[in-house]
Design goal:
Length: about 260
Amino acid sequence: MTRAPGCDLDWGLKRLHLPTVRRLYPALTAQAEKESWTYRELLEQLIGEEIAHRAETRIERATRKAKFPFLKTIDEFDFVFQASVKRKTLGRFLGPEMITEGRSLVLLGRPGRGKTHLAIAIAYKAIQNGFDARFATAAQLLGDLHAAARRGDHDEVLDAYVAPGILVIDELGYLAYGPDAANCLFQVIDQRYLRGHSVVITSNKEPATWGGVLHDPDLAEAIVDRVMERGEVVRLRGRSYRNPGADEPSGEAGPAAD
Ligand code: ADP
Ligand code: MG
């Protein structure tokens, strides 16, 4: 092959959107000369760095878009303190199959048991595995959909809750919701169900009692059916991590209906 006419390297790398190669090639070519790398090794190094950097920025962007209230990972979860759930049990929610198979999870327990931490950790894993995530409390989600309906952009806002591969709905059951809460929540869950997308719901109340929370037992049942088709319930017991001195409520069988 005859040599093509060269171009200005900086200009070319900019044009090809290879900022990491552009930033690193002066140092890496110098290192390559010093350490006698082959041309191929140098290319591999440069392209490897570009790919790694892109993956990092994608994760950062997706994490911002997810709107987590705080970022906690599975490695930061103390499974000795929270002995009612095993790291192994959660394994099936931490790999790419969580999203590709549209698995869902309901995390139940009283306050401070680590529900929100685990839900965020699972969604963050999904982001690391290449998917988009979204976090909202049930109250935020319902308020957001209401406001959108009034403004007239309900479909766009609904899509923001339906499109991501994983949606965390935190704190279902803590508040008294309005009369069409069940309907709004059903729309989100049903649309996600139809697309085979994952949902993680945290609650202090057993799914069997969500009918009362949402003022509509039939719709609540339809919601629970869809979530549980490819979903599991994990109950977090024991003491509150926030207040470990407090006694565990005696005879605790699950989350209290408080
Ligand atoms: P919940 O949602 O069940 O009320 P959170 O997940 O918000 O509880 O936990 C409260 C705080 O305690 C968070 O900062 C969380 O990171 C921390 N926490 C709870 N359980 C654990 C645990 N087992 N290991 C490490 N941190 C924990
Ligand atoms: Mg919480």
